[in-house]
Amino acid sequence: MVIRNDYEISEQSAVRHWDITTARLVNSAAVTETDPTCVTSAVAGTCLTGTVLTMDAAAAMSVVDFTPSMVYEHSVRNVLTYNAAAEATWGAINEGDPIFYDASATMPANVYLSTSPLDNTGAANPLFGFAVLEDENDTLPVGAAVVSTQVIAVMQVGAGR
Predict the structure, then answer these.
(1) pTM of the prediction?
(2) Which phi and psi angles does 23 have, rounded to 5°?
(3) Per-residue CA distances from 28 to 24, 62, 77, 115, 137 (Å)
(4) How many independent structural domains does the chain possess?
(5) Is 8 a member of any domain?
(6) pLDDT tens-digit map of 100-116
(7) Helices (H), strands (E): how many in the chain?
(8) Residue 12 maps to a domain
(9) CB count, 10 Å around CB of 59?
(10) Together in a domain, 41 and 103
(11) Strand-pair partners of 90
């Protein structure tokens, strides 16, 4: 058996921090550091998603963490479905539930994630990640069948999906 001793590894391990032109971010008008974000795409539901680390207003650039499986705390709306462009149903957010980047006009200010696979126009929301426990003291489910926004740990899919 031959064991290779020359193989390629990234200088930054598995970390994927990348400069993105701020104008290419879906939430570019309101984006701030630590916000989840989505890079605009020509195909609905296929956006590259990640978490904004830093912003340089003068250069109009943002550094976004696209690292797969990175966990950040984010505000998540518990909306499941929309009807006539308004939120229609809500549910508890459970461990392992998919979390979507939701640019719906009905979302509260500074909230970009929800549990709805479709936005308020019926277009596909890109998968952002999954609800996870922050630590052994964290509990899920949170929220219920009434409208709420919860701060939870989200394991992002990043650039590795």
Answers:
(1) 0.88
(2) -60, -20
(3) 7, 10, 20, 22, 35
(4) 2
(5) no
(6) 999 999 999 999 999 99
(7) 0, 11
(8) no
(9) 10
(10) no
(11) 79
Q: pLDDT by residue (tens digit) across 53-107?
A: 999 988 999 999 999 999 999 999 999 999 988 999 999 999 999 999 999 999 9
User: Whose CA is closest to 49, among 34, 31, 67, 61?
Assistant: 67
Residues spanned by the domain of 40: 17-65
Q: How far is C-alpha 130 from the chain's CA centre?
A: 9
Report yes or no: 17 and 63 within 8 Å, Cβ to Cβ. Answer: yes
Omega into 36 within 30° of 0, i.e. cis? no
Residue 139 has pLDDT above 70, yes or no: yes
Domain identity same for 76 and 60: no
* Average pLDDT value for residue range 133-143: 90
Determine which helix (DSSP H) or strand (DSSP E) holds 111, and give its type and residue range: none
Domain-located, residue 85: yes
Q: Flag whether 4 is in a domain.
A: no
pLDDT for 12 equals 45
Same domain as 78, residue 153: yes
